[in-house]
Amino acid sequence: SEKMQRRQTSKQPLQVHHKNQTGLSAWRKGGRIDPEKSVQNHQSPNNQKNDSKQDSLEQALSYFEKVQDHVSLKKNNVLQKHLTTVESIALQRGLPPEGFDVLLNVALSGKLSDTVNTRLLKSLIPASVIPETSVVSSVSWLCVSKCSSNIQLLFLRWLITVFDFIDHKEQLHALYGFFFSFLQDEKMCPYVCHLLYLLTRKENVKPFRIRRLLDLQAKMGMQSHLQALLSLYKLFCPELVTITLPGKMKTYFKDSEGPWKATIKTVRRRKQENSPVSQPLFLGTAQPQSRKRKWNTQLIIPASSTNKNNLEEDRENQCVDFYSTNEFFPVEQLQTFSQLLQNIHHLEFPSQMGSVLTNPLLLHYMNCIKDESIYLRLYYWMGQTLQEECTWYVADNKQYEEFKDFLEMVYKAECFLQEGFSSCEEFLYKSLPLWDGFCCRSQILRLVSWIPLSSFSEMKSHLYDPLAQLFFTSSLYFKCSVLESLKELLQNWLNWHVIHLDSESDSQVHSLNTTLSGLVNVVAELIDFVGWISTVALRLENNPTFLLYFILDFYETVCDMYLRYNLPLLIMPPAGVFYPALLSMDSVSLNQLCYIMYRYRTNLVAAKENELSKKKILQFKFSSQTYQEYNQYIIAMVGCLWTSSAFQKDIHPQGLCMDDELLKKTTVQEFKTSFNIIYHPAMMGYAVLFLQQAWPDDMTFNFSLIKGKKWNWYLEYLYAQGLKGLKVFIESSINRVSQAS
Q: Which positions are tagged coiled coil (predicted)?
């Protein structure tokens, strides 16, 4: 800081030059590099009007570049005119890169009043990118204390908001210590912490900085912005930060976006509507610009300062050079998997963490390295984007489609990494109570399927309760979609358990604070929740086959948790699900139920054998109630489908047991056999077809003919029709006196 002050003896800012930057004078002489103008010239019928605005902006920038003395706004019509010009053009289409150096210097030099400086800073809306050199030059003005503290604070807020629009960051990173020195100012501290959070690399973490943050925390108390920076330091160097920090925070930093973010969105949207020609590059020179809102403009990997002409030549030597040195490998040059393997310890992630979501190689890197700092940066960026930019009300169809695309991209990244994002979980918990169940339905429910494991009390209030309200009041299709999402959520939790079964020391296990008993409890609560909403839904919708399919599909996962996922838990479906499936009019549902009961039997038998073998002390044992409920269901199924005794022998409290006198009042002739595999409403169609094939001349459809050997033939006929669930159930759960040869 003292060195920088000595260089300011002439009361001029540091002049920082970059080989890729074109000066304002060259731009004014005709060497304009504002690519937006050329696009507009091709597409707009009002070229003269555009030229007039361009000339007005040039005159305004020339005026502000040459202004020397303190000028009063009230007494100077020229100043008012040029200030209005800058504001109107900035709000309409944004400012070109060359204008930032002039406007930042004049706003921070103290030559004009705070009112003018404030209006200038609020007008700094980028049309494309912001040159790093302009930012570094403006930072040097903070050394000479020419501007007021309010202007300094506004400048920091602007810098945080447009951080992703700065074309390069290397020189800005070099000023890390300078920014750190501003932490002593209580008003600026939250915004300085925010900026440092965006700039921090591992080499920035030093013991003296940690001591300084701890001193500030002791002085100011537990401030969220200090905790954020300390958390990042601890992830980079856990051996240096030994204190215990609170768990994940909902919000680390104050809202710093001020008037800029909304204006940037408006400018980008207006350019999108008026420009059918492809737009200039927005964040770097290596890839075409995304025509999306800010969440999508951040998804482009920023280009490094490498000269584009030498890029191909550099790539040939990148692997050897970066592998043998401590330098970083630019991620925008990462093109192949072999490059990733050779430079995996020399990669530095881009400032725009959103670009990671669209790059499979960087997602591979996250999977391999497990660098918690990367996850923290990604969660921070995603949390900011989801919580502040995505809303359930949208202005037009384009924004709605962009919102859907963004959520779809987040979901695909979660699938790739095979884990949910905590920031996405927080977004869902905040948004589900406000969701109408229609906007981005597919994307939201897919994101629900990747919610990480957490306590039941948290999930009940934030997930289950709002989802249940929508579930009961929405269409049949929505109910099926929710059940499908909850089935995938269960499968993702079970897969997570299998992956981490033999790695209890994994950091993620500790961070989730998830023990085996905790996992069992959370999974059991999810299954109970699905059982409850399924029972109610079947009553509301009058037992439709379509809904029953999705319910039974969920229980196909539940019935195999012990053997397939090694989770010591089995929960039987409630009677409100079992009996509608058993008495279904559709053979698909009945066949599905038979297969589920077969898998329940297989899992329970395996659990009982392990329990009886006593080879190892089992931490969990299935309760006798589980075995009892299974036996009750089996008695009901065998009584219905095979022995025709369900009305007499079903012992379940909600079962089919009825008095013979009551059954006779139904006037059904053979009520005892009403639900066996011949007369069951789901099976009678097969019985008719079998009779037509076995006795083609008999048109009386005498079902009593199916007995003895014909019974066995009928079973083989059913099996040949694809009823594999019925086959394995009968073979495993029914002891037949006679067997077909």
A: none
